[in-house]
Amino acid sequence: MLRVVEASRAPAKVIIEGLGKRFKTRKRWVVAIEEVTMTIREGEFLCIVGPSGCGKTTLLRILAGLETATSGKLEVAHRDSAKPLNSMVFQEQSIFPWMTVRNNIAYGLKMRRVDSRIRDEVVERYLKLVGLSKFADAYPHQLSGGMKQRVSVARAFANDPEILCMDEPFAALDEQNKILLQEELLKIWESNRKTVVFITHSIDEALVLGDRIMLMTAHPGRVKAVFNVDLPRPRNIATLRTNPGFHKQFSEIWSSLREEVNKAKADEGICT
Ligand SMILES: Nc1ncnc2c1ncn2[C@@H]1O[C@H](COP(=O)(O)OP(=O)(O)OP(=O)(O)O)[C@@H](O)[C@H]1O
Question: How far is the CA of 268 from the centre of ligand 1 (A)?
Answer without folding.
Answer: 12
